[in-house]
Each structure stands twice: as C-alpha cells, then as structure tokens.
C-alpha cells in the first residue's frame, strides 16, 4: 500500500475499539471544557465587584458539591457502560500475530498453521480489514508500550511476560504506531506501521512473505549479494525464507517490500538504504547497528541495490 499514513491520533479512529476511545476523548474533553468555561464565568463575575450573591452557602453547596457529584456520576456511569463494550482480550481469535518489542524496533511473526513455520518481518504489521487480530506482545529487553491510536488503545510489553491486544480495523489504510513507554535513547524513533487491507490482499501478501525473496538478476544487485556475504551481514540479519537469524537484527527477507526503514524513521528506498548502511547513527543516533566504515562507495551502492531488490 502506498501513500502517507493516517494521522497518529486518537481523534481519527479506524478500528472498533479506537472509535470507543475516541468518544471518551471527545466527551471527557468537552465536559472539562464546559466546567472550565463555567468556572471562568463565575470568576469574571466575582472580579467585577458589586453586591455579594444572596445565600452564598447555596452557591457553595450547589456549585462545589451537588453539581460535581451529578456531573461526575453521569460521566462515571456513561464511561463504565461504554468501556464494557471494548473488545475482550483473548487469544481465541481467528488470527494471532506475535510482536516482540526490542531496542528500538519491532519483530513481527506470523505462524503458518500448515507448515508450523514462522514468517518473520519487522516494524510493519499487515492485517485484514474486519477481522479481529490478536497481538501476542512481549519484550526482549526493557518495558516498551505498543500503541496504534487509530486502531486501539495502548498496552505495555514487559520482559518475561506475554500481554495481548486485539485490533480490528474497520477501513483499509496505513496507520502509524509508536512505543509509548520511554525505553532509552531512541524511544522517540521506535515507530511502526500497520497496513490494513482487504482479506484478499492480505492473503496474497502473506503467501508472498512465506516464499524466499526472488534472487535479483540485475548485475549491480548480484554484486550486492556478494558484498552481503563478504560483510557477513547474515550474522545479525536473517535473509532466508523464514528470516531467522543468529543475531539480534531485524529480518531482511523481503526488506524491499517494506515502506519504511529504521522502525518508521525514513522511507525505504535505495538512497536511504545506502545512507543507513554507511552511517545509521546519522539517521538514528544510538542505534545498535555499526557504521560500515570498511565498504567502498561502489560496494555500498551495490549492497543497497541488493537489499532494495529483496521483495
């Protein structure tokens, strides 16, 4: 899916739970605004001077006790009723996706029930519109928090524990998410994107992801594969059919089909790949990938072309 992502805002819902949360934001913000306006009006009247109000204790009791009790009780009853309509979190959904938060990116796994193998990708979650998808969330290091405000609420990912969140997109689109728990130097750039598409498009995408990336025929990309092997990039990054790697880097299988690089930091293309490989710290300071100081410009360009061709 092409195009810019939707605004990362709770006020632009595109999911069942997100619509309820958006109502909370509007109603509670509206009620707070009305109360503030009433208080400011009373303050302005008081500052004008003049005769004091008759029976001041009635004003104190009415404005300070009765009105807050009635208003807050009404908001409590409404919010409790509306919150009960949020999706119950259960892994007994038609589709389950595992998401592991790491410093500072997201590993995403889809299980193929026919083969038992995992399809591993990074920083991008695809899901079918109208289908409840349960995310099994965990952390590989510190506490992070998964939040895609247009689709659902947020939930922490805790090392050693499995938490869960159900997403049900109501319309196709590209939605940006973010780690919402401070987790270190690159917390602000620990983003991700959710691609909500039709069930047919999702099935085609998943089937493609289950296949090895096609070997590039372009001479420059072929040279880039040789550089990939010479530099031992696979020691950190998986690039096989499953994307599994002995190291801690994101899977590079089908990297070229992704929309963004560096956990949503920059759009993915040959130019940004080349700049990222040469010096990732210039794009994302503190990232754990080392700069490629020993690669000549021609080899760097070839390696970027190879990775961009992995679709």
Report on the structure:
35% of the residues lie in helices and 20% in strands. By secondary structure, it is an alpha+beta fold. The chain has three domains: 16-83; 95-209, Cupredoxins -  blue copper proteins (Immunoglobulin-like); 219-308, Immunoglobulin-like (Sandwich). β6 and β7 form a beta hairpin. α1 packs antiparallel against α2, α4 (219-230) crosses α7 and α5 (270-278) packs across α7 (297-308). The longest helix is centred in the first third of the chain and has 32 residues, at 16-47. The radius of gyration is 25 Å and the shape is elongated.
Return the string of H and E elements: HHEEEEEEEEEEHHEEHHH
Structural class: alpha+beta
The quaternary organization reads as single chain
Mean pLDDT: 86
Number of helices: 7
Distance between the termini: 14 Å
Given as residue ranges, the uncertain stretches (5+ residues, pLDDT < 50) are none
What fold name goes in the CATH topology slot of the largest domain? Immunoglobulin-like
- The percentage helix is 25-40%
Write out the CATH superfamily name of the largest domain.
Answer: Cupredoxins -  blue copper proteins
CATH top level of the largest domain is: Mainly Beta
Q: How would you write the strand order of the largest sheet?
A: 3-2-1-5-8
Largest sheet: 5 strands, mixed
Q: Please indicate the count of domains.
A: 3
CATH architecture of the largest domain: Sandwich
Q: What is the radius of gyration?
A: 25 Å
